[in-house]
Design a protein that fits this description.
The structure holds two protein chains of two kinds. Helix content of chain A is 7%, strand content 40%. Chain A is mainly β. Chain A is globular, with a radius of gyration of 23 Å. By secondary structure, chain B is mainly β. Chain B has two helices and 25 strands. Classes of the chains: A mainly beta, B mainly beta. The interface between A and B is large, with 89 and 95 residues.
């Protein structure tokens, strides 16, 4: 009896110690590209015919784990023809009737489950996916991994979940992405191989329990205050190979509203230094994610990151926009698609976009949370909130007369900036 | 009374647990990083062989102050016992009647970086003084109208702005000492000399952890197809001054600097699995601790635990006397088709390898490393994952870097 009476306290102590052991390995309250986490993010995933991406995910624990994954496609489409594009210059003006086009990036999501046995690694090409008993060696995950609609240019996020489908703080997942030549390439393939580590968000003891992932103390670690990207200046010549170098930046927003399937608005403030202490700056605005050469930031062929106006080396710091924006309601801050378009890749339903036009920024993008009802009709949880944090990866392209070689690298991060959320699609039992 | 005593004891136990929690959770569990600025950087693999060169990038993230790095190239070339000038590969019989003796030789140099400055050099060339971007009196952009011999910039030459601020003076990066070269690079953040105080490892509050670095392998100059592969340097952050530690000792013990992890995790394709029809992955490992004063390299044993997609497990062990570079499928055998890292044996494409360093050397037991996947369509490098940090109990020594 005495033993029984003592047991609750001892049990509590045991629980506390177990929790300590479980989370002690992850006290670094940052995101990381070299540790496992409960949320892993691949900021650059391409399957557009000319390039493909192999996704490698592994369970680093001795227990089986389940993850729910989201492909989020931000591939551009020309505003009238719907043709695949990257920047506005890829969309020629039409002559009959005369109309100019822009390249519109609308975010579309596709999700699936993956199950991994203890310490199990697995891999699949994004363009094909992976089906059970598909003839590939190895045990495929017991749930089919679908190929997303293509062309695909966007990101992949995988969240560790429990049996009920809610996010779980197990920190078991790690991943890598290998970008390879695609099936439809016509140019030489040699050198077109890049690899980077997935970004891991480590979960704290209070993470999970609902379909909303919150980034902050005790929950999922916060996204960084600042990203630091070392890269060659655009057009610089590599001293050893003689190749001309260009760098491509891929950024994703930390806040994602996957349940309502609406893109957030991000504004990256970029400050770049060359080796001569010269400083350059540029903004980069986008929806859920962006994949852009530095020489097209903020506009096509801009000089800010060019070797022609400075040194050949750059170190660029990227800060997410300070301030708040309306995430829902009639004043939702976002970049317009094409209002009324039947093309699902362009569709836009916000009436403000009818007059504003594609790629216009509409809504309240600098709201004051102290003002009552500043975001009319907004969801109480997602009204006037902090603008999204940012994560990313950079890839350099070395072009010689005979080929182009690539190398990807994980971006450095500094500080933490709590407040981001990811809203997962509702579960059947919700 | 009994209940009160029991309640008190439970409260005490919980308090004790919270105390342990504080002790365990705060200063400990701080392993290295490959995506944050740090005070010690490791580039585990640097190569130059005439057709492949390594571009080393080193940047200062301080927004206002210069910083200095003291760097060590570690030449890990092996040489023939019967001809010490002949460089050899220990995995091949290249020395005739002699044997191929592993080598370890360090050369050190300084790099001074101005605020927010990125700097880079090729391992084959280093940086000569004339190539320093910022020197006193010289225009920031090379080719300007004034020079460092004394033209009064801004008077005789309007529009020309000479540098009178922070400079790179003090920087001298030599080329790697041998061709071919394979080895590592290690840089430690130093505080610049002040008066009679020489430069020393930087432990000033606010000035620490200002270095970031990358390496890019660049292959085949001269109009032939180029190849490129990059990885981030692995960093250890300065954490605080530790009493009783000699000034020339850097302790990687979570108190003075971050520790090296208990396990490195390498996800890879099994050799000769898929990409490009001939993929192999090269793994490079270097010990975290080195005694540069006595010229004694770190020595660690690496235990490999390999999992395939069938949840099958294999293991092997290799010594890392100062530097280990090997194709995965040559780690455990000289016949790569019979290796546990080969597709033929593992039977699946993807593999996960956990690398656990062990050892009792005075320099410690930690390892850091990088991976380089080579295929018929090019190559890609990437960083290893890090997992767990060691508890320095029961005689387990922290890694120690001893400076001259």
């Amino acid at each position: 009896m005495r033993g029984l009476k003592r047991s609750p306290g001892l049990f509590g102590l045991g629980v506390l110690l177990v929790a300590l052991v479980a989370f002690a390995g992850h006290a670094r309250a940052d995101i990381a590209s070299d540790q496992s986490g409960s949320l892993i993010i691949f900021p650059k995933v391409i399957a557009d015919g000319s390039r493909d991406t192999w996704i490698q995910i592994a369970n680093t624990t001795n227990s089986g784990v389940q993850a729910h994954c989201f492909y989020i496609n931000a591939a551009g489409a020309c505003s009238v023809t719907g043709a695949f594009c990257d920047i506005d210059e890829d969309c020629p003006s039409l002559t009959a009737p005369p109309v100019s086009q822009v390249c519109v990036h609308v975010c579309r999501e596709l999700d699936f489950d993956i199950l991994l046995t203890p310490q199990q690694p697995t891999i699949w090409p994004v363009s094909i996916g992976r089906a059970a008993f598909d003839g590939m060696p190895g045990i495929p995950p017991s749930v089919r991994i679908p190929p997303p609609p293509q062309p695909f240019v966007g990101e992949l996020k995988c969240v560790q979940v429990d049996r009920s489908g809610f996010p779980a703080p197990g920190n078991a997942l790690k991943g890598e992405a290998v970008i390879v030549p695609g099936q439809n390439r016509t140019a030489p393939d040699f050198g077109l191989l890049s690899e980077y580590n997935a970004i891991s968000v480590i979960a704290g003891p209070n993470a999970g329990g609902s379909g909303i992932l919150r980034f902050g103390p005790g929950q999922f670690n916060a996204c960084p205050e600042k990203l630091i990207v070392p890269h060659y200046a655009e057009g610089a010549t590599d001293g050893f190979t003689g190749a001309t170098v260009s760098a491509e930046l891929s950024l994703v927003a930390c806040t994602e509203l996957l349940e309502p399937q609406v893109a957030t608005y991000s504004n990256a403030n970029m400050l770049s230094w060359d080796e001569f202490e010269q400083q350059f700056s540029a903004p980069l605005q986008f929806g859920c994610s962006v994949n852009r050469r530095f020489n097209n930031i903020p506009v096509v062929n801009s000089p800010q990151f060019s070797a022609a106006v400075g040194g050949s080396l750059r170190k660029t710091t990227i800060r997410p926009q300070a301030g708040f924006q309306c995430y829902s309601g009639s004043e939702r801050c976002h970049i317009c698609g094409v209002y009324g378009s039947a093309n699902p890749g362009l569709a836009e339903t916000d009436p403000k976009c009818a007059s504003a036009g594609p790629n216009a920024l509409v809504g309240n993008c600098s709201c004051d949370p102290a003002i009552p009802n500043v975001c009319p009709g907004a969801d109480p949880d997602f009204g006037c909130k902090q603008s999204p944090g940012l994560l990313g990866v950079v890839e350099e392209f070395y072009t010689s007369p005979s080929n182009t070689a690539t190398a990807a690298i994980n971006i450095y991060n500094q500080g933490s900036r709590p407040g981001d959320v990811i809203v997962m699609p509702a579960l059947p039992q919700d | 009374m009994v209940k009160m005593t029991r309640a008190a004891s439970v409260t005490a136990l919980v308090g004790l647990a919270l105390g342990i929690a504080t002790l365990v959770a705060s200063p400990a569990r701080a392993i290295g990083t490959s995506d944050q600025a740090a005070s010690i950087l490791y580039w585990p693999k640097v190569v130059y062989d005439g057709t492949t060169d390594t571009l080393i990038r080193l940047s200062n993230v301080d927004t206002s102050a210069p910083t200095q790095a003291h760097c060590y190239y570690i030449d890990a070339n092996s040489h023939c016992s019967n001809n010490p000038t002949q460089i050899c590969d220990p995995q091949r019989n290249e020395c005739g009647a002699g044997s191929c003796v592993p080598g370890w030789m360090e050369i050190d140099f300084d790099v001074v970086l101005t605020f927010e400055q990125p700097l880079a050099w090729n391992a084959s060339r280093g940086i000569r003084r004339a190539e320093l971007p910022l020197v006193p009196g010289k225009p920031p952009l090379l080719g300007g109208a004034c020079n460092e011999t004394g033209f009064p910039c801004g008077f005789s030459y309007p529009g020309c702005t000479c540098n009178f601020g922070q400079t790179n003076v003090g920087t001298g990066v030599p080329p790697v000492p041998e061709v071919p070269f394979v080895g590592a690079l290690e840089c430690i953040q130093y505080a610049p000399p002040q008066g009679s105080t020489p430069a020393r490892p930087d432990n000033q509050a606010g000035a620490k952890n200002k270095l970031i670095g990358q390496a890019t392998f660049l292959a085949t100059p001269g109009g032939l197809p180029v190849d490129a592969a990059s990885y981030n340097a692995t960093g250890l952050r300065f954490r605080g001054v530790e009493a009783g530690v000699p000034g020339n000792e850097l302790r990687l013990d979570d108190v003075q600097y971050d520790s090296c992890p208990t396990v490195l995790v390498l996800d890879h394709l099994f050799d000769n699995a898929i990409i490009g029809g001939g993929n192999v992955t090269d793994l490079t490992l270097v010990p975290c601790g080195n005694n540069f004063a006595a010229q004694i390299p770190g020595s660690v044993t690496a235990q490999f635990l390999v999992f395939n997609e069938f949840e099958q497990r294999f293991s092997t062990t290799r010594a890392v006397p100062c530097f280990l570079e090997s194709q995965l499928s040559l780690l455990d055998t000289t016949n790569p088709t019979r290796s546990i890292f080969s597709f033929q044996v593992a039977g699946t494409w993807a593999g996960q390898t956990r690398i656990r360093p062990v050892g009792t050397a005075d320099t410690g037991r930690g390892l850091t490393g990088a991976a380089w996947m080579r295929t018929n369509i090019g190559s890609a490098a990437y960083n290893l994952h890090q997992n767990g940090n060691p508890a320095f109990v029961n005689g387990l020594r922290p890694d120690i870097i001893t400076l001259p």
